[in-house]
Specification:
The longest helix is centred in the middle third of the chain and has 18 residues. Strand 3, helix 2 and strand 4 form a beta-alpha-beta unit. 36% of the residues lie in helices and 18% in strands. With 131 residues, it is of the alpha+beta class. Helix 2 crosses helix 4. It starts with 9 loop residues before the first helix and ends in a 23-residue tail after the last helix. It is globular, with a radius of gyration of 18 Å.
C-alpha cells in the first residue's frame, strides 16, 4: 500500500478512534472518520496481546493486502483504522478475510458501488458491425 494511503502518526490514529464511527466483528474493529484530505488513508493496529512480532506483522500484512485490493471500492475522503482482535485472522482463508473487511466497510457506509468499466469487452461495440 502506498505511503499516501497510510496513517502514520499516533495523533492521526487517535483522531480516527476518537471522532470516528465504529463497526466491529469478533475478528476486527473498523473505525471510520471523515478525512481532511480527498483520499482514503488506512492504519492497522495489532496489540501485543495478539502474540509475538511475527504473528502481529503477519496479521497486519494480510489485512493491509485485503484493504489494498479493495481500495478502489472505498469512497474517498475517509480515514480508516482497522484493529485486529483475534488470531483467527492468521488461519482463515484470504477470501473469507476479504469478505469480512468488505462487510465492515459496507456497514460503516464507506463502500461505493463499483462503476462499470468503460473499457470492458462487454461494453465495447465490435468494429465492423455496421448494419
Amino acid at each position: 500500500m502506498k505511503r499516501a494511503h497510510r496513517l502514520r502518526r499516533p495523533d492521526q490514529f487517535r483522531r480516527v478512534r476518537r471522532e470516528g464511527r465504529l463497526s466491529s466483528s469478533p475478528l476486527l474493529n473498523l473505525s471510520v472518520a471523515v478525512s481532511r484530505r480527498h483520499r482514503v488513508r488506512c492504519g492497522f493496529v495489532v496489540t501485543r496481546q495478539f502474540g509475538g512480532a511475527v504473528e502481529r506483522n503477519r496479521a497486519k500484512r494480510r489485512v493491509r493486502e485485503v484493504v489494498r485490493l479493495l481500495l478502489p471500492s472505498i469512497s474517498h475522503g475517509y480515514d480508516l483504522v482497522i484493529v485486529v482482535r483475534s488470531t483467527e485472522v492468521l488461519k482463515m482463508p484470504f477470501s473469507e478475510l476479504s469478505q469480512l473487511v468488505e462487510q465492515l466497510l459496507r456497514r460503516s457506509g464507506v463502500w461505493r458501488q463499483s462503476l462499470p468499466n468503460r473499457l470492458s469487452p462487454l461494453n465495447v461495440e465490435p468494429s465492423g458491425a455496421e448494419g
